[in-house]
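Justification of resources, computational component.

The compute hours requested in this renewal are based largely on the per-chain cost of generating structure records like the one below. Each record pairs the submitted sequence with a full structure-token output. That output is archived, and it is also reused by downstream analysis tasks.
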Amino acid sequence: MPQITYLEANGNSTTVDVPDGWSLMQAATANGIDGILGECGGSCACATCHCYVDDLLASVLPAPSAGELDMLANVAAERRPNSRLSCQIKATAAMNGGTLTLPECQE
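The structure output for this chain reads:
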């Protein structure tokens, strides 16, 4: 079970044990982390779970799907090279110690 740190725009930092196979959006909403809304429930249809992945996560994640790239075009906050949708990131042991930085807004 990897430990993932969520760094909110206000500076709050929360580290969560994320069950293997859970999306990082699921883990955030289950643990009351502000900054990830996940309005579509994780179906890659709203972009309200936008996040910025650190170098560790970027190195182990597969490339975003075409659907994720389409949704990333609609994010409310600045889109960066390390922008991803946390609903599309499934936890694996290789992600242990990774950090997601959350944008200032999702809508």
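Helices lie at 24-30, 55-60, 66-72. The chain has one domain: 3-101.
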